[in-house]
Amino acid sequence: MDGGPPPGISVRRVLDSSAFLSGRQFPGELLTTPEVLRELRRHGLTASLEAVLGTQVAVASPGRDSVSRVRAASQATGDFPRLSPTDVQLLALALEGGATLVTDDYSMQNVGTALGIPFETVLAPGITAQWAWTYRCTGCGAAWPAWHEECPTCGARLRTSRARAEPGRPG
């Protein structure tokens, strides 16, 4: 999905923190969330980044329905525990606004792909295929299709692993 729109066509883009911190310029209508602004302020804003944010970027929050759709999709792909609340907000804003998501975060790209959200990368190559995840216990080795804070069998930590393909289903 990476590559951007054809020349001369303006696109809406939802930018994550890495996009702003990269120093790259992105054409078109730029959007982000209040959570990203807070992250950027914690890192410290340069005068040029402050100017970009103040003149070229609209700040918006997505609606509850879009956030619910993102959460459901991230649970279906298994990316839910990998996404921060900021990631969920960005995905929901892109979904709601029919925008392209600009991020190097593979989990965000994976969930975006599941929802039909186009993405552009900042510096990294980006995902080439959509994956589903499962969770394996580091203690007893049991596999779980849903995230748990600890293994329901033995209480050890779970780790993410790629789900095995079921017969007749790509994976």
CATH topology of the largest domain: Rossmann fold
| Structural domain tally | 2
Order of helices and strands: EHEHHEHHEHEEEE
Question: Distance N terminus to C terminus?
Answer: 19 Å
Query: What is the CATH superfamily classification of the largest domain?
Result: 5'-nuclease
- Average pLDDT metric: 86
Sheet with the most strands? 5 strands, parallel
| Rg from Cα | 18 Å
Structural class: alpha/beta
* SS element count, helices: 6
**Which bin fits the share of residues in helices?**
25-40%
CATH class identity of the largest domain: Alpha Beta
CATH architecture classification of the largest domain: 3-Layer(aba) Sandwich
The side-by-side strand order for the widest beta sheet comes to 3-2-1-4-5
Shape descriptor reads elongated
Strand proportion, as a percent range, falls in 15-25%
In quaternary terms, these chains amount to: single chain
Number of strands: 8
Low confidence ranges = 165-171
